[in-house]
C-alpha cells in the first residue's frame, strides 16, 4: 500500500507539470494574426504585452550568416528564467505566431526547433515568467533564396 501511494504521488506530480494547453482553442486570434504585435496581444492581452521587457538572461541562437535552406532554419532558446511558457513569433510571414511551449515550471529553458521563413525576417521569442512578467529577445535572419536568383 505504501509503495503504491508513492507511485501514485510521483505519477500525479509528473502529470501536473506536463499537461498540454491547447493555445489554438484558448487564443485562436493569436494563430490567425498576420502581424507580430497583433499575435502577441491576442496571446497575452494588451495590458500584459505593454509591460514586456528585453532581457539579457535569454540566449537566442540563430544562424549568423545567410541561410541557404529557408525550410529548415535551426533556432535555439536558452534561459535560466523560471517560466511557464515560451512563444516564438516571426515578422513578415502569413501568420506571425509559430509555436508556444507550455509547462507549469520551466526551471531551465533549452529548446531547439527548426522553423521556415519565406524571406528574411526577425525571430521574436517571448518568455512568460512564473510571476507573469514577459521577457523577449529577437534576432534577424537573412535568407538566401538560390532558386529566386536563377530566374
Describe this structure in words.
- With about 150 residues, this protein is of the alpha+beta class.
- The protein has a single domain (about 1-150), classed as Sandwich (Immunoglobulin-like), CATH 2.60.40.
- The protein has six helices and eight strands.
- The protein has helices at about 1-15, 25, 30, 35-45, 45-50, 145-150; strands spanning about 55, 60, 75-80, 85-90, 95-105, 110-115, 120-130, 135-140.
Tally of DSSP helical segments: 6
The domain count comes to 1
Largest sheet: 5 strands, mixed
The CATH superfamily name is SoxY domain
The total of beta strands comes to 8
CATH topology: Immunoglobulin-like
Give the percentage of residues in beta strands.
35-45%
Work out the radius of gyration: 18 Å
Helix/strand order, N-terminal first? HHHHHEEEEEEEEH
pLDDT below 50 for ≥5 consecutive residues: which ranges?
Answer: 1-19
Oligomeric grouping of the chains: single chain
Quick one: overall form? globular
CATH architecture: Sandwich
| Structural class category | alpha+beta
The CATH top-level class label: Mainly Beta
Helix content: 25-40%
- What is the rounded distance between the termini? 73 Å
Order of neighbouring strands in the sheet with most strands: 1-8-7-4-5
Mean pLDDT across the residues is 80
Amino acid at each position: 500500500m505504501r509503495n503504491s501511494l508513492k507511485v501514485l504521488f510521483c505519477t500525479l506530480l509528473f502529470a501536473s507539470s506536463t499537461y498540454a494547453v491547447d493555445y489554438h482553442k484558448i487564443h485562436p486570434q493569436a494563430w490567425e494574426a498576420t502581424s507580430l504585435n497583433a499575435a502577441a496581444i491576442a496571446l497575452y492581452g494588451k495590458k500584459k504585452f505593454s509591460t514586456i521587457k528585453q532581457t539579457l538572461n535569454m540566449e537566442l541562437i540563430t544562424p549568423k550568416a545567410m541561410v541557404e535552406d529557408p525550410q529548415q532554419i535551426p533556432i535555439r532558446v536558452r534561459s535560466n528564467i523560471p517560466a511557464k511558457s515560451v512563444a516564438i513569433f516571426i515578422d513578415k510571414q502569413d501568420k506571425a505566431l509559430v509555436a508556444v511551449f507550455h509547462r507549469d515550471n520551466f526551471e531551465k529553458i533549452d529548446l531547439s526547433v527548426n522553423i521556415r521563413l519565406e524571406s528574411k525576417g526577425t525571430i521574436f521569442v517571448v518568455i512568460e515568467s512564473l510571476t507573469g512578467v514577459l521577457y523577449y529577445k529577437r534576432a534577424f535572419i537573412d535568407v538566401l533564396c538560390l532558386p529566386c536568383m536563377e530566374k
